[in-house]
């Protein structure tokens, strides 16, 4: 837990109208957008607020209240740059290192605005004036709930829907081990605002493209099991993405599927893009995928969920490298 937030200072800072930009990591997920839009709904009561995300996000999140006002940096650089240049206050949500904002990195870095980071990934950058970071908390949305309480936010239905979405999407619908009694208490508090949890789940999980099922079929055909290491690997080739008309978000959650097998506690998903192979890791129990990703795959994240990247896009050598790494790492 890292926090140096001075709430009295923030309250005072927000007592006059400010230009505020809220941003989050590349390819924002439900927690990134949910936390950002929850904060947006609170701050827009008294301030000029923009939510700017680095690039496009999944259509399964486009119904979130406020999502129509989200600006996409990629392709809208000049207008976004001028909004960022004029900002008095920047919020960095759901990421720990500035590079995770991709091409927004340099304009954010050069901004002289006051900066606040709220996040739950390990080892946050020291790039902000204030930081609220706790890697034991399951979602940034939970930290946002606390932050909003501290700035005397009156929750409403829009804020509650956004926070609920953040918590649900980052906890596998409340199933991961880092879900706590407090997580459930927050959910219970959000439910006061008459939000329809079944509607939200349907919008998140039952409104997928056919391309998702096509790609899932390919992934399952490609399943590799390493039984003695309790590990599994699935992968997709760039040609599969083209053949089945891949849309952003289509492969969300695929990495978890091998974990449904009885003896598998470590799952890996490789996707081949034109500039390299994007990797997702998931584990159950003690296996620390954060350090595994950091040590061997230029990545990181959380103990049970992490990502990585290989510059070379040759799938056969990536899989061979993974298999060797797995063996030597577990022998250590
Ligand atoms: Mn998150």
Description of the molecule:
By secondary structure, this protein is of the alpha/beta class. It is 37% helix and 19% strand. The longest helix is centred in the last third of the chain and has 17 residues, at 315-331. The protein is globular, with a radius of gyration of 20 Å. The chain starts with a strand and ends with a helix. The mean pLDDT is 96.
User: What does the main sheet amount to?
Assistant: 7 strands, mixed
Shape: globular
Total helical segments: 12
Proportion of beta-strand residues: 15-25%
| Rg (C-alpha, Å) | 20 Å
Structural class: alpha/beta
CATH homologous superfamily heading of the largest domain: inorganic pyrophosphatase (n-terminal core)
CATH class of the largest domain: Alpha Beta
Question: What small molecules does the structure contain?
Answer: manganese (II) ion
Name a few traits of the molecule.
six-stranded mixed beta sheet, alpha/beta, inorganic pyrophosphatase (n-terminal core), 12 helices, binds manganese (II) ion, 332 residues, Diaminopimelate Epimerase, Chain A, domain 1, globular
Topology:
Elements: E1 2-3, H1 7-13, E2 19-24, H2 30-43, E3 48-53, E4 71-72, H3 77-85, E5 89-93, H4 105-110, E6 114-119, E7 130-133, H5 140-150, H6 157-170, H7 181-190, H8 197-205, H9 210-221, E8 224-226, E9 231-236, H10 238-243, E10 266-273, E11 276-283, H11 289-296, E12 300-301, E13 305-310, H12 315-331
Parallel strand pairs: 2-3, 2-5, 3-4, 5-6, 6-7, 9-10
Antiparallel strand pairs: 1-7, 8-9, 10-11, 11-13, 12-13
């Amino acid at each position: 837990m890292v926090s140096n937030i001075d709430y009295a200072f923030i309250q005072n800072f927000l007592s006059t109208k400010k230009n505020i930009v809220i941003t989050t990591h590349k390819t924002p997920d439900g927690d990134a957008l949910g936390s950002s839009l929850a904060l947006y709904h609170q701050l827009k009561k008294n301030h000029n607020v923009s939510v700017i995300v680095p690039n496009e996000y999944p259509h399964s999140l486009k119904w979130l209240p406020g999502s129509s006002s989200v600006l996409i940096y990629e392709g809208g650089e000049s207008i976004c740059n001028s909004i960022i240049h004029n900002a008095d206050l920047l919020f960095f949500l759901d990421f720990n290192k500035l590079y995770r904002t991709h091409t927004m990195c340099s304009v954010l870095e050069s901004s002289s605005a006051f900066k606040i980071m709220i996040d739950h990934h390990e080892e946050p950058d020291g790039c902000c004036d204030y930081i609220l970071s706790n890697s034991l908390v399951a979602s940034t949305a939970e930290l946002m709930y606390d932050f909003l309480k501290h700035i005397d936010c009156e929750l409403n239905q829009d804020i509650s829907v956004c926070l609920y979405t953040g918590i649900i999407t980052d906890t596998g619908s409340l199933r991961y081990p880092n879900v706590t009694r407090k997580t459930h208490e927050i959910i219970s508090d959000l439910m006061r605002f008459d939000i329809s949890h079944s509607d939200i789940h349907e919008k998140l999980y039952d409104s997928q493209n056919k391309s998702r099922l096509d790609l899932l079929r390919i992934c399952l055909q490609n399943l590799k099991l390493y039984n003695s290491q309790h590990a599994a690997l699935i992968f997709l080739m760039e040609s599969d993405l083209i053949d089945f008309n891949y849309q952003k978000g289509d492969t969300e959650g695929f990495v978890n599927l091998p974990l449904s097998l009885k003896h598998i506690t470590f799952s890996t998903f490789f996707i081949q893009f034109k500039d390299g192979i994007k990797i997702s890791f998931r584990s159950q129990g003690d296996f620390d995928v954060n350090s595994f990703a950091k040590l061997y795959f230029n990545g990181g994240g959380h103990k049970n969920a992490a990502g990585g990247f290989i510059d070379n896009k040759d799938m056969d050598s990536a899989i061979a490298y993974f298999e060797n790494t797995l063996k030597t790492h577990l022998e250590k």
